[in-house]
Design brief:
heterodimer, A: 323 residues, alpha/beta, Rossmann fold, 7-stranded parallel sheet, 13 helices, globular, B: 135 residues, 5-stranded parallel sheet, 5 helices, 19% strand
Chain lengths: 323, 135
Amino acid sequence: MGAAELAEGVRAGNRRALARAISHVEADSAIGRELQRRLYRYTGNAQIVGITGSAGAGKSTLVGALAREQRRRERTVGIVAVDPSSPFSHGAILGDRIRMQDLTADGGVFMRSMASRGNLGGLSETATGVADLMDAAGFDVVMIETVGAGQDEVEIATAAQTTVLVTNPGGGDEIQSMKAGLMEVAQILVVNKADLAGADTAMTQLKALLAIADLGAWRPPILKVVAKTGDSVGTLVDHIDEHHAFMRSNEHGDRERRDLARKQIVALTRAALHREALVTANQSGALAALVDEVAGRRRDPRSAAGVLLEAVRREWGAEIASR
Amino acid sequence: MANEQRIRVLIAKPGLDGHDRGAKVVARALRDAGMEVIYTGIRQTPAMIAEAALQEDAQVVGLSILSGAHLELFPRVVDELKQRGVDDVLLFCGGIIPQEDIEKIKAIGFQGVFGPGTNTGDIIEFVKAHAPVRT
């Protein structure tokens, strides 16, 4: 199937077309790019919600519970669940469906597992691109679930309109969350597994952290939930709706959208520049020569980088001139 | 890495038996061979397996079964896939499949049948050799 046919299928709600379209966007193929070009104009209708938090915090279980609550409210749900790729084999085991087995049979839910693939600064853009496809396909709510462990993962969360940070009772001291910079990206804070001891202490710690955080017009609510039983998940959906309405109404929302647009353009350009520069550096042989010099301690790495950048600029200049 | 299609494999256990060690061993072996393995867990209905294969756009579907219900469940998985228009996946299976059933299972579209004691290297080789290429 070509891009035109796939785009039509996605718009018509054909699940197989959507699944195949996602594969193309994930692989960053020519068809994938064409699909994004054709479909982006149809995005902007879904509520995009990021779910982040450390491994074992209960994100998948919470996403499942949120999806069930959204379905009770008669909204359709798209889910993008990101799991890490192995840095050694580049393979991955994607197990998020295990917590959402019952949702597979629901025609109003579409879930896609994604491996992080260790790619150069492009992970959050790829996840966002996949979420955009679900948006264009007409899903009311799209959730992006990710391990909030590193910079890339934090970036995915910021790509969502509303980000929910999932923590646990006894889930490490407050300095850990400050280090990760997660407080700054979340608009809603959740203490999951709140039936365990220490939930109130965790609430108090989060409140204390928020008290010293640099906040804008939106005050992040903090709430206790038990994802496994669905306890207070309805209240969480209410908060997500509130934030969504806030983003739609306020002039603040317009600024956020522009910030997000700028961030996406810059990040994609940066990734493309990175890739293309490395290709040029390798092809011209400039890199290989510099590697010899630096390995032999005849030149320092920093000035070698300067020389390489000059070489790349020259190659690109010649290429442009020859066009 | 970016810009490359990885082999995506769905590993599922249809039916009611809960013994998933074999499925997990195969999932790990395929991951270590560089594939992306979607593991769906135990007690899957044929419809759930087919729907997951569709949503995940998996090129390969591997089923593990120890209950003896393979002749009952496998044709239904094939049917559910067909109903959804998923006609270009590589099917393989493992578990306890009696010798006399292997031909029947191959006849409905399972290209690989791997019994107990199979070397995981053989499964990896099989998947790499037969996974359909997506363009």
